[in-house]
Design brief:
The complex is a heterodimer of chains A (about 220) and B (about 650). Chain A has helices at about 10-25, 35-45, 60-70, 85-95, 105-115, 155-165, 170-180, 190-200, and strands at about 5-10, 30, 50-55, 75-80, 100, 125-130, 135, 140-145, 145-150, 170, 210-215, 220. Chain A is of the alpha/beta class. In chain A, α2 (about 35-45) runs parallel beside α3. Helix content of chain B is about 55%, strand content about 15%. Chain B contains 13 helices and twelve strands. Chain B has helices at about 1-15, 25-35, 40-115, 115-175, 180-195, 235-245, 285-335, 350-410, 415-445, 460-475, 495-510, 540-545, 570-580; strands at about 205-210, 220-225, 250-255, 260-275, 275-285, 455, 480-485, 490-495, 520-525, 530-535, 585-590, 595-600. In chain B, strands 2-1-5-4-3 form a five-stranded antiparallel sheet, sandwiched between helices. In chain B, β11 and β12 (about 595-600) form a beta hairpin. Chain B starts with a helix and ends in a 57-residue tail after the last strand. Classes of the chains: A alpha/beta (about 220), B alpha+beta (about 650). Chain A: Keywords: DNA-binding, Phosphoprotein, Transcription, Transcription regulation, Two-component regulatory system.
Chain lengths: ~220, ~650
């Protein structure tokens, strides 16, 4: 089955080009040129992934991102023309899983899309524990005691990566490679923002984390 | 009696002229013996003393002022001593008890003195006023005291002369022979001297001169007014009177009146009665003069104090008028400097201060206008950069993707189309890197680039960059030699920017290294870490070296376009380094390659005390002259270009990464 991808971009030429590239690689693109209609198209097309431009007529890309995230865990990859820290961080904080700065290579875009669409490879029944958190990998659930904690697939992958090797300190680069699928250096702010978001969901006190610990100057590790 | 007449005439003569001095007149001394009406014994003693005592008398004559002063000084000295002792004790206990408070007060005053022009001016004015009033007051008081005394003395002298003459006349004219009438006569005569009425005008001491044969009818030895004895007469005066002729002498003394001691003047002369020579001293009370003087002094003190206070108040008012606009201006300019550009001075009137305020406000207004304009420009620039970024990138992305699709399919094209697709693809790449560099540098220019610093391991970043540069190095046939300490090196930095700087330096070195090895050396000290990237390529001369970090600068324009790159790489690296408060420096020499050193502070707030690595590589020898002093070599060009602090070390040459 072809994965359906919603491309939200007001630039018709670019959208069409993206469509060509995606079709070339065996995806099924759906288009939307207006931010205000993005949510409706999203609901009707039920895509497997959303490619979202940040600057949109009708409604800001960040707002669109927040609304989609409000009702779905579907992976969202932002297309940004600006690489200013504040915009990228704002986008990531509003719920995007990854971003591709313009101008991007087709291969780069496809790699990002594939990385986000990667099926949960390890479906073998497996239960991980870090601190007071229990992770059911096969069931894609995270709980503290009897309380279920809702995580996006990306946050889930990040937590699983850390929990699988509690003895290891993960550098940001290593996490980028394992969780986001980057082969070469990318922006480590991705990791920082998502770790913060993950902490805000699973830590009892995000200011004094116990599940995901920072190793100063190196990266992150799972709490014991 | 003849002698009486003589005396009288003498006295008259003296009265006639203004008697300033109390010394015996030479004329008197000369005349007295000449009159010859006196006893031989007396006659003998008088002339002898005439000259002998001229000097003594003179001494006494000057002394009166001095004596008077000395007397007063004695009293004052004692009072001063008591006051001083009290003050010392008070100060000592005060100092012990209130020392911390005093110290604080002292420091506060010192601070006030340093920081407040008004305080300083008022205090200085007060001190000067007090000093001048003290000087003028002392002079005035001294003059008044002297005049009062002189006046009183002149009066005392003439009165004495008159009274002595009266007494002498009475004695000379007396026809008494029996003891009781002699005593009565003397008493009555002397009482008359004391003055008529109830007020005692003067006191007397009447004493027979010692060492004279006692005549038969001498019944009176000594007499004195109430409470007085001969001891109140200073010995010097007695001696002068005894040894002179009929001359009048005076001296200051202290007399007991009631229970108190009062200052007085004693004026002495001789009188003869029944063949006996007596010393007669008339003593005048200076109390009234002293009281007058005291009153005048207290008026002077009070007036002085009031004047000093008034002067202080005037100085305070005047300086406040002058200083307050100045301090107002200082306050306003501080606020302006702190960024409150709408702050203005209050302008009142048309005087110099108002002009200052007006021109200050004018300056502030134009400053505000300029700054606002600049800020607007900067904002416009930022927005422009942002818009260009978006507007250019979107179509560029499309073009790029299309180019890539074509490029991927180039093998299906005929040769012409295939080459076109390749050119399109490569040039779109180049266009893109140029655009992103341009946008990056505009961000620095607009001042919107921010440092996103976190403690990270520099060695990892370097290893990563070297790994990334390895394929390029292999392409150029050069090798990257890496020397670094074991373990990790945590530096507070923006890894993205440091990565970019190092990639730039290393690729630069590889591209200009002519296939020779490129050395990357890392070292650290307590405050900083340094990375040196050294190549052994063609190097640069001085003129080229000076422009290494210039935008779009190329070492050799002729071969500029053979390698890619925007020409902005090193400029961006320099801006990134500045953002880290670090140094980026270059050294080079024609034929010896170049060395670039990046120095970063371990912690952003600390700064770099000294660089851990030398800029000039150790392996460099002066070509052809191993023993010579390299610094004098003509082709050894060094120049330091650095961000942040100034290090006058000479470095030089380098090349631009194209």
């Amino acid at each position: 089955m072809k994965a359906r991808i919603l491309v939200v971009d007001d630039d018709e030429a670019l959208a069409e080009m993206i469509g060509i590239v995606l079709r070339n690689d065996g995806f099924e693109p759906v288009f939307c040129a207006d931010g205000a209609q993005a949510l409706d198209v999203f609901r009707s097309s039920r895509p497997d992934l959303v490619l979202l431009d940040l600057m949109l007529p009708g409604m800001d890309g960040i707002e669109v991102c927040r609304q989609i995230r409000g009702e779905s865990d579907v992976p969202i990859v932002m297309l940004t023309a600006k690489s200013d820290t504040s915009d990228v961080v704002r986008g990531l904080e509003s719920g995007a899983d990854d971003y591709v700065p313009k101008p991007f290579k087709p291969a780069e875009l496809v790699a990002r899309v594939r990385a986000r669409l990667r099926p949960g490879d390890q479906k073998a029944p497996e239960t991980l524990k870090i601190a007071d958190i229990t992770i059911d990998v096969a069931g894609h659930t995270v709980s503290r005691g009897n309380d279920r904690i809702s995580l996006t697939p990306l946050e889930f992958d990040l937590l699983v990566a850390l929990a699988r090797k509690p003895w290891q300190v993960f550098t940001r680069e290593l996490l980028l490679e394992q969780v986001w699928g980057y082969r070469h250096a990318a922006d480590t702010r991705l990791v920082n923002v998502h770790v913060q978001r993950l902490r805000s969901k699973i830590e009892q006190d995000p200011e004094a984390p116990e599940v995901v610990l920072t190793v100063r100057g190196v990266g992150y590790k799972a709490g014991v | 009696m003849v002698s009486a007449t003589k005396q009288g005439s003498d006295s008259a003569a003296q009265d006639g002229e203004p008697v300033r001095r109390t010394t015996p007149h030479p004329a008197d001394t000369g005349l007295n013996p000449g009159s010859g009406a006196l006893d031989g014994a007396e006659g003998d003693s008088s002339p002898q003393d005439g000259t002998g005592h001229g000097t003594g008398g003179h001494g006494d004559g000057l002394a009166p002022g001095l004596r008077h002063v000395a007397f007063r000084a004695g009293i004052w000295r004692r009072r001063a001593l008591i006051v001083t002792l009290r003050v010392v004790r008070l100060v000592r206990t005060g100092v012990v008890r209130f020392l911390p408070g005093l110290r604080y007060l002292g420091r506060a005053l010192q601070k006030r003195w340093r920081r407040s022009l008004q305080f300083r001016t008022v205090l200085t004015t007060l001190m000067l006023a007090v000093t001048s009033f003290a000087v003028v007051g002392a002079y005035l008081s001294n003059q008044i005291a002297n005049n009062l005394f002189q006046e009183r003395l002149t009066q005392a002298e003439s009165e004495t002369r008159y009274n002595v003459k009266q007494v002498q006349d009475t004695f000379d004219g007396a026809q008494v022979t029996d003891q009781s009438s002699v005593i009565t006569l003397v008493s009555d005569t002397l009482s008359a001297v004391e003055g008529r009425g109830s007020v005692i005008q003067r006191r007397y001491v009447f004493e027979a001169m010692p060492n004279q044969t006692k005549p038969r009818n001498r019944w009176v030895e000594s007499r004195a007014s109430d409470q007085l004895t001969v001891s109140v007469i200073p010995a010097d005066l007695r001696k002068a009177v005894q040894e002179s002729g009929k001359d009048q002498y005076w001296a200051s003394t202290v007399i007991p009146v009631g229970t108190e001691d009062r200052p007085g003047i004693a004026v002495g002369n001789k009188v003869t009665f029944n063949g006996t020579v007596y010393e007669l001293y008339l003593i005048y009370d200076l109390n009234t003069a002293q009281q007058t003087l005291n009153e005048i002094q207290s008026v002077l003190w009070a007036g002085g104090a009031v004047l000093v206070l008034l002067i202080g108040a005037v100085a305070w008012y005047v300086t406040r008028n002058v200083v307050s606009p100045v301090s107002h201006a200082a306050m306003v300019s501080e606020k302006l400097a702190a960024g409150q550009l709408q702050e203005r001075m209050v302008v009142r009137g048309e005087d110099e201060v108002a002009r200052l305020g007006a021109s200050f406000n004018h300056m502030a207004a134009s400053l505000q206008e300029q700054i606002t304009q600049l800020a607007t420009l900067s904002q416009m620039q930022q927005r422009f950069v942002s818009d260009v970024s978006h507007e250019l990138r979107t179509p560029l992305t499309t073009v790029r993707m299309a180019a890539e699709v074509l490029y991927d399919a180039r093998d299906d094209f005929d040769p012409i189309n295939k080459r076109s697709a390749e050119l399109l693809y490569n040039q779109v790449e180049r266009f893109q890197s140029l655009l992103s560099d341009l946008l990056e540098i505009s961000r620095f220019d607009a001042g919107v680039a921010v440092l996103d610093a976190e403690p990270e391991d520099l060695l990892q970043v370097i290893a990563h960059v070297i790994e990334g540069a390895a394929p390029v190095a292999a392409e150029y046939g050069s090798e990257i030699l890496y020397t670094a300490p074991e373990g990790s090196m945590i530096v507070e930095m923006d890894a993205r920017r440091i990565d970019r700087i190092l990639r730039n330096l290393i690729l630069n070195a590889v591209e200009h290294g002519e296939g020779k090895p490129v050395t990357v050396t890392v070292a650290a000290n307590e405050t900083a870490v340094a990375v040196a990237v050294r190549d052994h390529g063609i190097g640069l001369d001085q003129a080229q070296a000076a422009r290494v970090f210039d935008r779009f600068w190329r070492a050799d324009p002729a071969r500029a376009r053979t390698t890619g790159g925007s020409g902005l790489g090193l400029s961006i690296a320099m801006e990134d380094t500045k953002l880290h408060h670090g140094w980026l420096q270059a050294w080079g020499r024609k034929g010896d390659g170049a060395n670039f050193r990046l120095t970063l502070p371990l912690r952003q707030e600390d700064g770099i005390s000294e660089p851990p690595l030398q800029l000039e590589p150790k392996d460099v020898t002066t070509p052809g002259a191993p023993g010579s002093i390299p610094a004098e070599e003509g082709n050894r060009n060094m120049l330091v270009l650095q961000a942040g602090g100034a290090t006058p070390a000479p470095p030089q040459a380098s090349e631009e990464t194209p």
